[in-house]
Design brief:
The structure holds 2 protein chains of 2 kinds. Chain A is about 55% helix and about 15% strand. Chain A is α+β, with helices and mostly antiparallel strands. Chain A folds into 2 domains: about 1-45 and about 335-430 and about 480-520, no CATH class; about 60-325, no CATH class. The longest helix of chain A is centred in the last third of the chain and has 43 residues, at about 330-370. By secondary structure, chain B is of the alpha/beta class. Chain B has helices at about 50-55, 80-85, 105-115, 120-130, 150-160, 180-195, and strands at about 5-20, 20-35, 35-40, 65-70, 70-75, 90, 165-170, 200-205, 215-220, 225-229. In chain B, β4 (about 65-70) and β5 (about 70-75) form a beta hairpin. The longest helix of chain B has 18 residues, at about 180-195. The chains are: A alpha+beta, B alpha/beta.
């Protein structure tokens, strides 16, 4: 207590030189604390992003394979295609049907990786429902007649292709649990009547289905009714399945079609006439049991992407480049890169500023202690122990650093956000985004190329694309706020700087010989 | 050492190493000093008298010899020198050596504070000592740079007395004062020896001080000779 009193008194009485040291430290500490605040904000933001982006993967047909198939198909004439269709055996038909799908065994095997947290399997296909007319499909046929072939590329998946489809064709999406792996989790679609199909429905292949509200009203369908669906390629008694309607949904948000730019096309909403059914039922309707369009996975962290790629490579060995493991790593990088750059810059700035603080306090103490050598000698001569003198100086230095860091924390609260904004790169665009924005040559091939190379994923049950600049900017925004950790780091810095500052006085006091000092005039 | 003698130095030597070689500042010096006496050591600058004073005050360590204070050898490694400085000696310096950021009162309180005396007792005793030295009123709150040389030296003497030591070690106490003020300071030290039964050991080159000395020594080139018994 007495040491504190003496130290604090000395701090107050030596105010001129202490103020100079406080000001110098304040400048450096403000910079240090601001850089630290930016680093903590960037770390926090990156952790938040990691929770939503970069931890999704899916196994699907590779773009390279699809492109190869597409080019091969383009080389053939219509006559050749017709001839092949006529001469195709049942086995060939089946092989042709599954050639664009992923074996469920591959998807299942991959799901055993320790990093996988949840997974689902999805099969999307067109199914003929003889008793119903797809009004949107009618519009599509009209559109094609008006616009020619230009906008119709990229058949397959959820695109606008109409190959092999009729006005009775409906888009069926099957997965293992209707509630968890559909557009329903994102709010794009909302169940308004009945219930969703469950995992048990999937396991037992219960013939149930959830349909769209407008479709239901146009055809006077309600929960409990049945619709008859055609099994692809089947004939005879087993060629149809009666599907019981267990739920009706409404479309809150139309399906995003990131590749479509034509307003007339974007008003087209095939998702409105989408049927949702258990995966096993859709597989049966498509005559492709044990095959899926994709395996969909959420894993623990983007940091394990490389490990998952290695697992996939092992699991998919022997299949060539037919399948690929697509992740939203590029989306994560697009968002995280500016944050990472800001973080790295702030770390360098923090290190530099702390170094400057150390140099300032060391130089200041050299000057202060050398000017107060006589005082130290007097204190020792009149009966002060080394510990008492060191304690007094420690309190004095602590007071200097405390004032400086309190002021610095206040200043950090004022300028931290501005510094964060300044450090965050202005443009969040990345090479992947630039690549996506570059249009391939126009025409059918160009559109197809864009479709085949798109990075859109089936994340959250819907086609996911994080390519909006505003979305990225929002995600990459640095929110530099005061956190408890910043305060704790501030205390650590205070202690650290004080200890560095104490090095000189401790060394000086222990070595000081009062007789030498007091002999000097 | 007689009952009256509190300080005894026996065969004390101290050598400094400098670039030109070894310099013997104190060469086999022996002397005694008693309570109620002013013992003066005179000699020219560089004769070793200040070194001898610092040895007695435990600020320097001699190579050989013994310093006995109240029957204890302070050069014994077991001796607590900080306690010795607090309880047995008080220093008065030529340049006062007051702490510039402290007031007169605080300077006198400081040795007591270091020794663990309660703040109330510090204040009471410091005021009393300063009053005895003729320093009172506004001067109690004055800092050294606001006081005259004489006032500073009186504060320094009060500080030396703060812990009621047996021995007052005065190093050229008049060296930085005018003649009249110097005489006043010498009178105070003399009074301390004779009225408060202190052992005052003073080193100076001012031979006029010999008038008030009970015992006197002359020091030349590290050798001490008694000139008045």
């Amino acid at each position: 207590m007495r040491i504190f009193h003496r130290g604090f008194r000395s701090f107050r009485r030596n105010y001129t030189r202490n103020i100079i040291v406080v000001v110098l430290l304040f400048v450096c500490l403000t910079f240090s604390m601001s850089m630290l605040a930016v680093k903590l904000a960037a770390d926090n933001q990156m952790q938040t992003i990691k929770g939503t982006v970069g931890n999704y993967a899916e196994i699907k047909l590779s773009s390279a394979y699809q492109m190869k198939q597409f080019e091969a198909e383009r080389q053939r004439t219509a006559a050749e295609r017709a001839a092949e269709a006529r001469s195709m055996t049942t086995a060939q038909e089946q092989a042709n049907r599954v050639s664009d799908l992923v074996p469920a065994t591959l998807a299942d095997e991959f799901s055993k990786d320790n990093h996988i947290q949840t997974y689902d399997e999805v099969l999307e296909t067109n199914v003929t429902v003889p008793g119903l007319t797809n009004t949107n499909m009618q519009q599509l046929f009209q559109l094609r007649q008006g616009n020619g072939e230009g906008q119709g590329g990229g058949g397959g998946g959820r695109g606008l292709g109409t190959g092999g489809m009729t006005q009775n064709s409906f888009y069926f999406a099957g997965n293992t649990n209707g509630a968890s792996a559909s557009d329903f989790t994102t709010g794009a679609k909302k169940l308004i009547s009945g219930k969703q199909f469950t995992y048990e429905d999937y396991k037992n292949a219960n013939p149930v289905v959830v349909i769209e509200k407008n479709l239901a009203s146009q055809n006077s369908l309600k929960v409990g009714d049945t619709v008859e669906a055609q099994v692809s390629g089947a004939s005879g008694v087993a060629s149809t399945i009666d599907l019981k309607i267990i739920g009706i949904y409404e479309t809150v948000q139309t399906q995003q079609q990131s590749q479509s730019s034509s307003s007339s096309v974007s008003s087209f909403n095939p998702a409105g006439n989408e049927f949702f059914a258990p995966l096993s039922v859709v597989q049966k309707l498509n005559s492709t049991p044990a095959y899926v369009s994709l395996g969909s996975y959420y894993f623990d962290s983007v940091d394990n992407t490389a490990a998952l790629k290695a697992t996939f490579k092992k699991d998919a060995s022997g299949t060539g480049d037919k399948y690929e493991l697509a992740t939203d790593l590029s989306d994560y990088q697009a968002i995280a890169d500016p944050l990472l750059k800001a973080r790295n810059t702030s770390v360098i700035g923090l290190a530099g500023a702390l170094g400057a603080c150390a140099v300032i306090i060391l130089l200041a103490m050299v000057i202060i202690v050398s000017n107060r050598t006589r005082e130290l000698g007097i204190l020792k001569a009149i009966g002060s122990t080394d510990r008492q003198v060191i304690g007094q100086f420690a309190v004095e230095i602590l007071c200097v650093c405390l004032v400086a860091i309190i002021l610095a924390m206040g200043a950090t609260a004022l300028i931290g956000q501005s510094l964060g904004n300044w450090l965050l790169p202005k443009s969040t665009s990345t090479s992947s985004q630039q690549a996506a924005s570059q249009s391939a040559p126009g025409g059918f091939g160009g559109a197809a190329s864009r479709f085949l190379n798109q990075d859109n994923l089936y994340k959250n049950g819907g086609r996911f694309s994080f390519n909006s600049a505003s979305q990225k900017q929002q995600a990459a925004k640095l929110n530099v706020v005061y956190r408890g950790s910043l305060f704790l780091y501030g205390i650590l810095i205070l202690v650290g700087i004080s200890l560095v500052g104490m090095a000189i006085p401790v060394f000086w006091i222990i070595r000081l010989r009062p007789a030498r000092v007091l002999s000097m005039e | 050492m007689t009952e009256q003698e509190i300080l005894s130095a026996t065969d004390v030597s101290k050598t400094f190493q400098v670039k030109a070689g070894d310099v013997t500042a104190v060469d086999s010096v022996s002397f005694t000093a008693g309570r109620g006496q002013v013992t003066t050591i005179v000699g020219p600058s560089g004769s070793g008298k200040t070194t001898l004073l610092y040895i007695v005050g435990s600020l320097e360590k001699p190579e050989t010899g013994a310093i006995e204070v109240a029957g204890s050898n302070i050069l014994d490694p077991a001796t607590d020198l900080v306690r010795y400085r607090r309880k047995h000696v008080g220093f008065v310096f030529q340049f006062f050596n007051l702490i510039p950021t402290l007031t007169a009162l605080e300077n006198v309180m400081l040795p007591m504070d270091l020794a663990g005396v309660s703040p109330e007792e510090q204040n009471r005793r410091a005021s009393e000592l300063l009053d005895g030295m003729g320093v009172s009123g506004r001067l109690l709150k004055a800092r050294p740079n606001k006081m005259s040389g004489g006032e500073n030296q009186r504060v320094a003497i009060a500080r030396a007395l703060a812990n009621d030591p047996d021995i007052i070690l005065a190093d050229e106490p008049t060296g930085n004062l005018d003649t009249a003020t110097g005489r006043t300071v010498i009178d105070i030290l003399s009074r301390l020896a004779h009225e408060s039964d202190k052992c005052v050991l003073m080193v100076t080159h001012d031979e006029s001080v010999l008038d008030v000395s009970d015992r006197a020594f002359r020091m030349v080139d590290g050798h001490l000779n008694e000139i008045r018994a």
